[in-house]
Amino acid sequence: MFFDAISITASAVIQILILGIIGYFLKKRNILTSLGLDMLSRLVIDITLPLLIFAQLVREFDFRQYPDWWIFPLLSIAITVLGLATGFIFTGFIHGQQRKMQFLNLVAFQNSGYLPLAMIATLLPAQQVGSMFIYLFLFLIGFNLIMWPLAAYTLAFSKDTKFQVRNLLNPPVIAAIFGLVFVFFDVQALVPDLVLKPMRMIGDCTLPLAMFVVGADLAQIKVEHFDKKAMAWLTIAKLLVMPLLGLVVVLELNLPPLVGLLILLELAVPPATSLSVIIRHYKKEDLLISQGIFFGHVVSLITIPVFLSIYLSRVMIK
Question: Which residue of 11, 170, 217, 219 has the lowest C-beta tally within 10 Å?
Fold first, then answer.
């Protein structure tokens, strides 16, 4: 059973890896320039992902079918708090205040949208994908509400830095709120198929485009001055301790299989690639962020299949 689960998860990772490799070589060959990468990233964050979220919620979400929907945003906040606590503990092994802050963000904030989206699409049978997408999009409401303002505040790390409330309302969050409002007031019928189908078609581009962005992001990361000690502690904290805690909890609590899978997946994925965007925006010296993102994604090619395989060998997803 374990080896069957290894085969399933390895297959999913390989499919994702192929998409990421395409993005990597597009950047290395300069087919995708830095400006083009910024535009592609904005296209995903501002257009394709919000449309996918809105179309999926309007089409498949029902408050009666998902009465406990509010748990998922709270769950994402709880996972972020766990990441902050874990990161804070391990910052004791990191020297320098800015290094500590960057290490903390690498542990606390995961690649919560792109990789889980890809894993869900390739790992699960078609009849489960729709429900898991709903879970993921509800999860992202809480994550995006806390990640963008808090990461920007801690990475900027200055006495003059102010917490910016406007970062709370980013396009994915707005799309999710609009989708929930449409369903709550039962006005989703006002969105005709003539409009909804093109929105869904654009939204379906999110997965390959997102993985192109991840691969291209990794291609422009410079790792000449690799901090081996910090990367070792990052591996232990982010890619071993957190998913191990998640695996124990979801198995002990006997959570619904898809919910447990989402929790474990969010705890097992590597650091958020958007952290590099934030630190570039605030013109701060990149001491650990880029190498942490690069190293985390490489190591997670091994750790994610292992943890998911253990989980899938113990839990039957029907």
Answer: 11
Go through the domains of the chain in sequence order and give each one's CATH number. Answer: 2-314 (1.20.1530.20)
pLDDT tens for 106-122 read: 999 998 877 888 888 88
Structure tokens at 164: 């910016």
